[in-house]
Design a protein that fits this description.
Shape: globular
CATH topology: Nitrilase/N-carbamoyl-D-aminoacid amidohydrolase
Helix content: 10-25%
CATH superfamily: Carbon-nitrogen hydrolase
Number of helices: 7
Distance between the termini: 39 Å
Strand order of the largest sheet: 5-4-3-2-1-14
Radius of gyration: 18 Å
Amino acid sequence: MKAGFVQFMPRFGEIDQNLRRVKELIQGTKADLLVLPELFNTGYLFSSKAEAFSLAEEIPGGKTTRWLCDIAKQDDVFLIGGVAERSGKNIFNSAVVVSPQGYIGTYRKVHLFFEEKLWFEPGDNGFAVYDIGKWRIGIMICFDWFFPESMRILSLMGADVICNPANLVLPFCQEGMKIRCLENHVFAVTANRTGAENRGERSLHFTGKSQITGPESNILYKAAEATEDVGIADIDLKSARDKKINGYNDIIADRRTELYGNLGVI
């Protein structure tokens, strides 16, 4: 399996331009799976809930999801991309999963970061793993990584690869993903954006350094901080399904769940 990310600098509010830029970047790319950043089509730094609502789209009927489906069919690739989802009067920070055959599903970000809590509703459809042929993918978005439960749940559900659309501004994720992948023995594709957004007196700098991480805490590909890049790595899924670290220890079977209590409420 060839899995990868697209790292680029979206222009805030310029959906058509952002879609064109992604198409330019992936033209000629040969991959089975590509992950795009969080909110890749709109940019991140909203100034009001009304502005976020005006840029949000329905899924799967909106322009961006239909565009993703067209690209997936054209390039014979599975795509995951972050989109502001409009659902009735609510907005979710979501990730769309599409295949060469069309729309597969939507994940809504569970753990909202900073001002996202002003614009978005917390995800309400839980974590899911998608069987996409020979492999299984789980989805989380950006700040979800900070909570070890996110990747643990997805790994227990059978994910081989965790797809992580992101707009990272804190410096910890890229190093932290080494531990997340090691403790769950899975691969992860973190697709971060690069550059900065300046909206009046508000400004954010994004850390770039998108990364493909292996089950042994190994980095298979890492982008630079400030450049646009399409990174792809070969992934041996057998290594994600083997949870043994030696002849005596299995990281899943060795868990002492009878002693852990109900971790969701403690």
